[in-house]
Amino acid sequence: MSGVGAIAAAVTAAATAAVKPKVFTRVGIVVSAGMQPKMVKVRVPMPVWNSKLRKYFHHTKDHLAHDENSACLAGDVVRIQPFQRHSKHKKHVVYEVISPFGTGERKAIETPEEREARLKAKRDVKLEKREVRRKIEEEKMLAKKRGKEVQAEESAAPATAEA
């Protein structure tokens, strides 16, 4: 029976793993932090294959990543992952600090749950403001419509009285 249970568990694990979306993370070194609020520049090494020489050459690419609490310092080894676009060039978010550089107290990195809660709260505030704005516009339209009806009635009433 234990063999059947192990197979079922393996199949369940494979099924749940197949459903999860694949998120690509990159590991790099923070080269610039603190120049702009909530943003760090991460240099990610990426080997490039030269087919003529049949050899890999080391190249790097810089990514701008969002760091909500400004917890990273230059020299930290961090893991970044793509996330919703924060600005024209900032498309990643700091997922975790793998190896901090130096010693001293640090702020905590924002967890994915905290990030989702913050963005949901921000979205709720936006939707609430939109709803208030729509109600005000509807009231203005109704008042404008009523004003036209009143003006039409006033202009029509003296014309019938004079005739």
From TrEMBL:
Q: Which GO terms describe its cellular component?
A: mitochondrion; ribonucleoprotein complex; ribosome
Organism equals Dactylellina haptotyla (strain CBS 200.50)
One MF term in GO for this entry? structural constituent of ribosome
- What are the start and end residues of every segment in region (Disordered)? 142-163
Any idea what this protein is called? Ribosomal protein S17
What keywords does the record list, in alphabetical order? Ribonucleoprotein, Ribosomal protein
The GO biological-process annotations, alphabetized, read as: translation
CDD domains per record: Ribosomal_uS17 (cd00364)
Q: Where is the composition biased (Low complexity)?
A: 153-163
The family note in this entry says: Belongs to the universal ribosomal protein uS17 family.
